[in-house]
What we know:
The chain is of the alpha/beta class. The chain contains 12 helices and 14 strands. It has a single domain, classed as TIM Barrel, CATH 3.20.20.80.
Amino acid sequence: MSSTVPFLVRIVCYWQGIIPASEITPEICTHIIFSFIGVNDSGNLIYLYSDEAEIKRKLNEFQKLKSKNPKLTLMAAVGGANDELLNAFDNLSKTESGRENFINEIIKFMNENSLTGIDIDWEYPRNDEEKENFILLLRDLHSRFSLSNFTLSIAVAPEKWRSEKSYDIPRLVEYVDFINLMTYDFHGSWDETVGHHTQMFPHHGDSSYIKELNCAASISYWKSNKVPAEKLNLGIATYGKTFVLSDISKHRIGSIVDVEATKNTSGIIGYNEFCTSLGWKQHFDTNYRAYYAVKDDSWFGFDTKQQVKTKARYAKEHNLGGVMFWSLDTDSNENCKHGKFALISEAFKELNS
């Protein structure tokens, strides 16, 4: 695909560094976010999951993607689903000096690695004090970033109950360029019945709480809190969630789960792994308008190319800022019948048609 195709909306792609940067097709993304960099209590950046030399090697390769797509915005995410970072974010954001040091560290890191944006992924502010400190941190980041035209985004929880606890939404939206809604992981090993973790729409027969656990409900909630649609990116997962069925003859969404057996599995399969795995029988649940597959007592809920197309079309029809993918690393590869990055490419085609 040519990088000369004009993007109508954002296609934000997270990259974990699992696959080499040289294997990425940068033309299908408007933004690529390297994930993750950590932070300590003082606001100093730390390296997660790999040592400093390895991270710098990956970021050096990352920079080369701009030559293939000059319009591409290269960013890094600070944070992630890491409990050790919760106290660090809390402590650094409490004081003006802590926030200033953190921002200085970030700007230095961006300049050293030819990046032009940062994604803050604080998972998640736990109380009113942290909610307020998050606002102060974003305010100060915005103030400094605007001087250099850097991009500032955040990754946020999709659920209404968690968002109410963690975010002062009408205020935070003033300081960020866009918001990556993590509209996945709605369901998982904690559930006693099968649920699709990245379900697009609600089912009329669900309880009022379950009706909130889907992409459309999340978008609606954030928009109802004075967030302009163009600042929202609909999150799409390139992986699926698994359950172990209690009764293999009952596999529709809502069926009973063998909870203990489910907890003893990894619970996640990447689309790159699933697309070459044999023996799965695919189904479409008409009530939930969601795809899943079954093999023996294993249940796998995921997004197909068709479902990604549906989500991209939803983003376009509802005038959203775009879509976001977690992540490039688990999208399809050359061993899959649909070729490399089939899911992200499907969104690219739909949003640029």
